[in-house]
Amino acid sequence: MFVSRSPRQSAEILHADLDSFYASVEQRDDPGLRGRPVIVGGGVVLAASYEAKAYGVRTAMGGAQARRLCPQAVVVPPRMAAYAQASDAVFEVFRDTSPLVEPISVDEAFIDVGGLRRISGTPVDIAARLRSDVRSRVGLPITVGIARTKFLAKVASQEAKPDGLLLVPPGREIAFLHPLPVRRLWGVGAVTADKLHTHGIETVADVAELAARANAMTADAQQIVAHVKKGEGTVGALVMDEAVYDDVQEMVRDLKHNPWKFLWKQ
Ligand SMILES: [Mg+2]
Description:
Elements: E1 13-18, H1 21-29, E2 38-40, E3 47-48, H2 50-53, H3 63-69, E4 74-76, H4 80-97, E5 101-105, E6 108-112, H5 117-120, H6 123-138, E7 142-147, H7 150-160, E8 165-167, H8 173-177, H9 190-198, H10 204-214, H11 219-230, H12 235-238, H13 242-257, H14 260-263
Parallel strand pairs: 2-4, 7-8
Antiparallel strand pairs: 1-6, 1-7, 2-3, 5-6
């Protein structure tokens, strides 16, 4: 676990995340599945290959709906032991990359490469090497986002999927965030995104603007906006500082549970 309280000068936090983890393991182990839509799990979709995702199949979707969307998909039962083994192998690569690894789930982690410049090269070099190591040692595609904060690194990896590498250069964070769909914000799920869409809020920039408008509304909102202003005036700027990032999470939670608090006067 590593914590950074003050904004870093350079982008040196990696978010590494395997692509369609379970489905990729199935495609790795059975060449007959490569290039084909694969769904892991019959009752509920546990994972879908990118070929299946192209048809709208999503994780946690009911199996019947998934098969309707993509009748030609190959449905395979999960092999949890194989996934556990793959996860161990991937984390071995992570730990060989840097001593500072913070696991998030079986297939993703933050990796701090800040102190490694002299021995391992730039964060982009390290990320590229990590991707090729995971490919050669574990046989799986992985996407890496690189940024000054964990939040941004995670947003970057989601944006770069599949099998990608994306750096958010210092100073370009706001330009990177604002055009993104709200769904890309960590903590905004499908339901929250739908609610926001109903109110015409599509992008992160819209959320930033909403925060600005909220200034004129309630005392609560004004408090949040005070934090926003500390971070240079937009929601995007908030992610520069993890202390303030907690406030963004709170705001996202509020948007989730009580969007009216922000929207009632519009
Ligand atoms: Mg993943």
